[in-house]
Write a structure and sequence with these properties.
With about 280 residues, the protein is of the alpha+beta class. The protein is built from 10 helices and 9 strands. It has helices at about 25-30, 35-45, 55-70, 70-80, 85-95, 155, 160-165, 185-190, 210-245, 260-275; strands at about 10, 20, 110-120, 125-135, 140, 175-180, 195-200, 200, 205. Helix 2 (about 35-45) packs antiparallel against helix 3 (about 55-70) and helix 3 (about 55-70) crosses helix 4. The longest helix has about 40 residues, at about 210-245. The chain is rod-shaped and about 90 Å long.
Length: about 280
């Protein structure tokens, strides 16, 4: 009956899933077999749902919700592995195989960190790819010489990159986006053993706390540098002000040697001569 009602394997919405599904005319009959089979049918429906441009993460959430209705144990495993898609779907494939489904697994997603940074000369802004985060939480840093998004041709072709580019216009703006790896993206950022790479070199794995500490240290160093610059500028301003005061061809006003109006007229002329446009009184 039902187990004999099969059709050729079809690719589901999420790349990498290949299922043997019951023929459409048997679905209504299949729903009569009980809660277990209803959830199996729901799961297949979810895998095939929507159009191809739909967000892949949304579909993963739908799969998770469907499995919750079928197996608490498997959904708990999802939570424990913290979105470790490879481990989760391998267990999921075992469940499918035990229920007369064919399954192939090649599903990979990665998180890309995109940030607007200053160019080398500091005169313009550049959208850069700074980090890659895997589904198991490992973080890999892109070398500075390769951060410019122009080096990441395949990434710039994705809808996610376009949205980030439209949203980030000012220096310091940052977005982290999960992207389903196409074959081209996977070949760009993964070798045959799924090690993270770029431009024929393996990327350095970093600790997020260490990365934050480095960023904080850099920020503190910048603050100290600015403080020194401001302090130096203030001293130079004070020195210049004292020098100008000595070079002014005008006597100090004491209210007896010259009338007020005449003294102010001479003072204005000296200010114009030394291009002193602003005076601060403390």
């Amino acid at each position: 009956m039902l187990k004999d009602a099969k059709m050729p394997a079809e690719k589901a919405l999420i790349p990498g899933f290949v299922l043997t599904v019951p023929r459409k005319e048997f679905v209504s009959e299949w729903l009569k077999y009980g809660s277990k089979d209803k959830n199996e049918c729901l799961l297949i429906y979810i895998l095939k749902l929507g159009n191809k441009e739909e967000d892949k993460i949304t579909n993963i959430r739908r799969i998770k919700d469907a499995i919750k209705n079928y197996s608490k144990k498997i959904s708990d495993r999802w939570e424990k592995c913290h979105r470790r898609a490879d481990v989760f779907f391998k267990e999921f494939s075992t469940w499918l195989e035990g229920n007369e489904f064919e399954f192939e697994f090649e599903f990979v997603i990665s998180q890309f960190t995109l940030q607007v940074l200053a160019s080398a000369d500091g005169k313009s802004n550049i959208l850069c790819e700074t980090r890659i985060t895997t589904t198991d939480g490992r973080i890999f840093e892109i070398p500075k010489e390769h951060m410019n998004a122009s080096h990441h041709k395949e990434l710039t072709k994705t809808p996610a990159y376009t949205k980030v580019k439209n949203a980030c216009s000012q220096r310091g703006h940052l977005r982290r986006v999960w992207i389903n790896l196409t074959n081209d993206l996977r070949n760009t950022y993964c070798d045959e053993d799924d090690n993270i790479q770029f431009n024929e070199g393996y990327l350095e794995e970093i600790n997020e706390k260490d990365g934050d500490a480095t960023a904080n240290a850099s920020e503190q160093s910048l603050v100290k540098l600015l403080e020194k610059i401001l302090e130096k500028s203030q001293k130079e301003t004070e020195q210049n002000s004292g020098k100008l005061a000595n070079e002014f061809a005008i006597d100090k006003f004491d209210g007896r040697n010259v009338n007020t109006q005449q003294w102010w007229g001479n003072f204005d002329k000296e200010c114009e001569r030394f291009e002193c446009n602003e005076i601060t009184c403390e």
